[in-house]
Amino acid sequence: MAESDVLDVSRLSAGLFVEYLGLTKSGPDVTMVGAGDPPPLCDRLWRGHPGVISEPIPQHVLVTWAGLEETVSSFLIGFSCDDLGLFHGLGVISAEEYETRRARVLAGQAPA
pLDDT category, 73, cuts 50, 70, 90? Predict the structure, then answer.
């Protein structure tokens, strides 16, 4: 992912479409779903996972992730900016790209 795609604090706003730039995560400790069983694809936070910023506080940005609305990933895990004002875990995507990826995630597929 190009550095220009990383969210900058100057663009931070509620309702902004973003993607997760970290590693693909899975398991009950990450999402608190499917305890005891391996979660289905739609219960994972994938690299490229689409979301919408719900709380644009620079020190703890919350994102509502598609298909993970009721999980810890959406209501507890936040992102902070570095000294340059960059959120390295979040990239900005278009509304069209958000919808494309959202449909894939809800169908149990990886977002990209």
Answer: confident
Instruction: Report yes or no on 111 lying in a domain.
Output: no
- Does the residue 38 lie in any domain? yes
User: Has residue 88 been placed in a domain?
Assistant: yes
Full 3-state SS string of 44-106: CECCCCEEEEEECCCCCEEEEECCCCCCHHHHCCEECCCCCCEEEEEEECCHHHHHHHHHHHH
Residue 94 dihedral angles phi and psi, to the nearest 5° = -80, 165
What is this structure's pTM? 0.82
> pLDDT band for position 24 (50/70/90)?
confident
Q: How many domains does the chain have?
A: 1
Q: Is the dihedral of CA 68, 71, 74, 79 positive or negative?
A: negative
For residues 59 and 49, give the distance between their C-alpha atoms in angstroms, rounded to a whole number.
21
In a domain, 22, yes or no: yes
